[in-house]
Design brief:
14 helices, five-stranded mixed β-sheet, 3 domains, homodimer, ligase (chains A, B), Rossmann fold, BirA Bifunctional Protein, domain 2, 27% strand
Amino acid sequence: MAKTPVLTPQADDFPRWYQDLINKAELADNGPVRGTMVIRPYGYGLWERMQREMDARIKETGAQNAYFPLLIPQSYLTREAEHVEGFAPELAVVTHGGGKELEEPVVVRPTSETIVNEYFSKWVQSYRDLPLLINQWANVVRWEMRPRLFLRTSEFLWQEGHTAHATYEEARDFAARIHRHVYGDFMRDVLAMDFVLGRKTAKERFAGAINTLTLEGMMGDGKALQLGTSHELGQNFAEAFDTRYLAKDGTRELVWQTSWGSTTRMIGALAMMHGDDDGLRVPPRLAPVQVVVLAIKGDDAVLAKVHEIGGALRAAGIRVQVDDRTDTPFGRRAVDWELKGVPVRVEVGPRDLASGTVMLVRRILGKHSPGGKEPVPVDALATLLPTVLEEDQALLLTQARARRESRTSDVRTVDEAVEATAAGGWARVPWAALGEEGEARLAEHSVTVRCLVTEDGAVPHAEETPGNVALVARSY
Amino acid sequence: MAKTPVLTPQADDFPRWYQDLINKAELADNGPVRGTMVIRPYGYGLWERMQREMDARIKETGAQNAYFPLLIPQSYLTREAEHVEGFAPELAVVTHGGGKELEEPVVVRPTSETIVNEYFSKWVQSYRDLPLLINQWANVVRWEMRPRLFLRTSEFLWQEGHTAHATYEEARDFAARIHRHVYGDFMRDVLAMDFVLGRKTAKERFAGAINTLTLEGMMGDGKALQLGTSHELGQNFAEAFDTRYLAKDGTRELVWQTSWGSTTRMIGALAMMHGDDDGLRVPPRLAPVQVVVLAIKGDDAVLAKVHEIGGALRAAGIRVQVDDRTDTPFGRRAVDWELKGVPVRVEVGPRDLASGTVMLVRRILGKHSPGGKEPVPVDALATLLPTVLEEDQALLLTQARARRESRTSDVRTVDEAVEATAAGGWARVPWAALGEEGEARLAEHSVTVRCLVTEDGAVPHAEETPGNVALVARSY
């Protein structure tokens, strides 16, 4: 008798699988206002771990956290022409406050470059105040017509970094450092994510930037998702807000700036990059719960044992949860932990006690794979598990990378690119053969240039560097 | 020659002193939209430490973090009559989104009871789902007519807890636990704050609650400030949103609820409770920087030494910053660290190197007090400082408590209470002698009942318990 699957199988309908997963793993619910979301405790626990890991890496660059207001005078946004053009269609506008109509409407921040620059102009006086490196953890609102939980929501949580530097080179290098070493290292080392580091085309650039660096990941269905971006803003906002510093030679110079953001979208990316038909697979280094110790039945000896094992593993530095809710059937709980993607299950029943073993089930390797589900001696757990967790962390990255490599093809023309990306998958096209015209033709088929890379896969210093390759795909 | 004071002296003009301090210690700036604020890195660093300490205590109760949307349909607020009456005058209303007028206006959350209950109604099915204990760290907006940085701002940051329980007693006990053991213990043990734990009168209760518990602190000028509140919501929101659970006996019962919040106002309270004419005094257990090691002059030996000391103290578990910015005059830097209230300065100059000593300056004890500024052997620092920091932590609490005790008087009538509180200071009045009528008469003199306590200083179980004493004061 075939079991009814808990989730719509990925191969049947990937977007439906995603929606089922977000719901059944209790990651998030739709909010009452169109496009907003409620992040449930299990989803928020993932975000908290992401925040902690990212925050430490951001602070290592010398940046400090601060907080800028949610509400921005509408007039601020209009000071930078491209910026307002980019964001105007997505704004939420507050027209009434304290029971009265406001003299000037204020917008709920869609991003904070404008209000940040208003204050940078006051705080930056001399070259001694540079570089000024600020980050904030905040919510932003961008009205969303086609919302999808975590991926595109009208409100999302993020960190946004804003920096000011004395020279173009310093700003450029800082944006690159965030791109590769804050976002890149974090996503690869903690989230076990595979991605391509590249440069956006002029069409895909952040509104107001002179260069946008991106990390593009391949999801389970072969589509692309932008995982994070780091922008060189040049002097665009500095000019609009007159952000200047007194240089050593006594002249007053405009600063060079960067901004960079990563969002709760990473939770959706995690699901779509590592998830399978049984649910999430959470990388062990990220997982709020790395190991769950389950009591199969509610007899006293078993309950005592699961708590004993829980204590021992906790003492070994593992993030453990004990599941002793034996009034809920074991099968239902096991399926739930699978859905939630906890890396390792340690299952303990009366028979295990007698044999001195427990059943070790590896969510990432898979219970049907050799070694994916096998009895191990209780006493071996504390030494065995750290190795298992690191192996499975590595496996996730290997699998994601292998998928991208197998589903990326080299093509020469727009038509070939459209064909190669139609069923999911990425295509590499010489940028010289594509250009803005080719980019426009791809767009007719809902295919975009995700980023440009050099021939040997590095991040190009300019859009028109000879040999640049465009990575094109359908995307979320 | 008398020095021009860095801050307006407290005795001359306390509100002005506060404003100077917030500005010069670089805690916050006014935002462009009336009543909003920019929290600068030093101020935000205090908030981050508060968050970390509070978050751990909140999680110890079994509560989990989640995130609910910023934008709430206006109709949600109207479902609980007292709630909407209380918050309607303070709402910020979004009428346009994505370039269009919205069909139903949405409000920027002033608090989240309504939207939380909408989801609790879905998540709570049976008694097995209770208690449901949720917390969120978020921003809220309450339009403010008389803003003051940190104390009353149109947007502020806070944590708001929301819980649902099976019985009245469980909810009551949980609200009390948060009041005394999460807020109370944290504020006393980490913030070195002195306060009275009490119960609000019906007039001062949270809009929609059946009981509000409060912590009231005395500021440097004798006025009161509400430091945090914990509410019993009874079944008011459960009724409005039909939040029910299936009891063991098969009946469907309304849940009993609590909510509780503490905000960035604590930063203002910290300044006004512990600050002096030289600036902030940050409790060592809170301080992001507990010890600053200053190079007096920029010669190589001194610079090497401050970094050596910094490393040694860091290794001893102390939060240290090294100040080697010797292109800025030493005096200016010393004043700045005083303003910022860093508990201990270790000053290192060429003469100190020769003698093997450094100058230890204790911000909290005070540089003019015996032992407040004296040379100590370099080698003794790592063992001496932990003791110094704990002593100074205790001293702040002792000083705050002594001030409250000396400035609180027992009175019998409304007139005496008005007189006793006119110049700052609190009065204790028998609640039976005051009542709602007396409360209204006090209000004519801008004096409010901050809370009710029992004769022996405990938190009363009811407003009308015989012997209840009203603590009355002017307040922020």
